[in-house]
Amino acid sequence: MSEIIDTFIAPPCQEEVTILWQDEHLLLINKPAGLLSLSGKNPQNLDSVHHRLVNLFPGCTLVHRLDFGTSGLMVVARNKAINAALCRQFSQRTVNKVYTALLCGHLPNDDGVIDAPIAKDPALFPLMSICAVHGKPARSRYRVVDRFFQEGEDGTLQPLTRVVLTPETGRTHQLRIHCQHLGHPILGCDLYGGLRLPGTARTPRMMLHASELHFVHPVSAEPINACHASPF
């Protein structure tokens, strides 16, 4: 197997990580688009959600990640015990995540399910691929909120669909590759076709936002239903 070499260097992110709620056990934050969740091996990729928060909350650890280009809700554990308890909820799939996205084109159906296994391929890094033979099961639901047209930088009208996406599994790049598989990539997604349509090449960010996060507080056992509106 060939060695994977990551040459990505993240550009500076001027936006702040917003702390939406906190107690002595955990934090709920909004991650800006264009910021790594965790610092990379390359020293030029030091800036990240974790790097910024650990200076304010020593000992905090990430329970899950969002892609570099994705904005939205994340839960951060303030100690190892809380991290372990939250990780169990994620692994048992009792955490419900909801995303808002803008997809290229107009989806013909108002809702549906994308059931397509996803595999890693070092030869394609950092891309993932749909693979019925080697892929792990992956399932996502979508619901159309709105269909509209937006003027591109070249004056053309781009057909776009606003959707709510609900991943039932948690594979790397799942929503991005599933939307491409559907034939309607996420607008601004550089890896899976979201910059290829006329007028989309200069889209300022990937139009994917983690807008809801539902889980159980590991200490109080109270349900946490976090919502944060999409910025687009």
From TrEMBL:
Pfam families: PseudoU_synth_2. GO terms for molecular function: catalytic activity, acting on RNA; pseudouridine synthase activity; RNA binding. One of its GO terms (biological process) is enzyme-directed rRNA pseudouridine synthesis. InterPro entries: PsdUridine_synth_cat_dom_sf, PsdUridine_synth_RluA-like_CS, PsdUridine_synth_RsuA/RluA, RluA_PseudoU_synthase. Its EC number is 5.4.99.-. SUPFAM superfamilies: Pseudouridine synthase. Keywords: Isomerase. Residues 25-181 form the Pseudouridine synthase RsuA/RluA-like domain. PANTHER family: MITOCHONDRIAL RNA PSEUDOURIDINE SYNTHASE, RNA PSEUDOURIDYLATE SYNTHASE DOMAIN-CONTAINING PROTEIN 1. Belongs to the pseudouridine synthase RluA family. This is RluA family pseudouridine synthase. It comes from Phytobacter ursingii. The lineage of its organism: Bacteria, Pseudomonadati, Pseudomonadota, Gammaproteobacteria, Enterobacterales.
